[in-house]
Amino acid sequence: MISFATPSIEKKIAYSVKDERAFDDNELKEEYQNNQKIEQAFWATENTKWHLVRSAQIKNTFTENLEKIVADLRLDNELAFLFSQWLMFVVNNWLKFYREPVIHIFDKTVSLFGVSFEQATSLFQHAIWHRYLKLDLRKQLNYRHSLCELGASLNV
């Protein structure tokens, strides 16, 4: 939940951003509705207009990409141990991989490091999340595209 108020020349306006999943979960739904009533009442006492914004209303490519890579914020012990070696592999082969589909990096990772395709994807996404690899997250994160097409650069 994120709530904030924006000053305006005439009035302040409060926006409350709620996770869309809470509206689908019957157990959370009642709690969220009660919290919304409390928030709305509070802002009314402040003479501030209040708006509920559901997360689905602010979905865009950037937020979808963040949702995709946040799963690999932390790596399990096995992958954490391999990460620095894998990163050096990517750095040393950057020019070779730059114009190839990203899935080729995953395939090479699988064969060289003995991990699954999903684990190779996790290594890549972990590198993006922690900004070792910079990508333009406003573009859809499609791993059939090349690093070049994704606007990728190294940050090591």
Report on the architecture of this protein:
The chain has helices spanning 21-24, 26-45, 61-70, 77-92, 94-97, 102-113, 117-129, and strands at residues 2-6, 13-18, 49-54, 133-134, 153-154. With 156 residues, the chain is an alpha+beta fold. The chain is 51% helix and 13% strand. A three-stranded mixed sheet has the order 1-2-3, with helices on one face. Residues 1-6 have low confidence and may be disordered.
Task: Give a concise summary.
Helices cover 51% and strands 13% of the residues. By secondary structure, it is of the alpha+beta class. Helix 4 packs across helix 7 and helix 6 packs across helix 7 (117-129).
Question: Topology, please?
Answer:
Elements: E1 2-6, E2 13-18, H1 21-24, H2 26-45, E3 49-54, H3 61-70, H4 77-92, H5 94-97, H6 102-113, H7 117-129, E4 133-134, E5 153-154
Helix pairs in contact: 3-7, 4-7, 6-7
**Shape type:** elongated
Helix proportion range: 40-55%
Taken in chain order, the helices and strands follow as EEHHEHHHHHEE
Largest sheet, spatial ordering of strands = 1-2-3
List keywords for this structure.
3-stranded mixed sheet, disordered N terminus, alpha+beta, 7 helices, two-stranded antiparallel ribbon, 156 residues
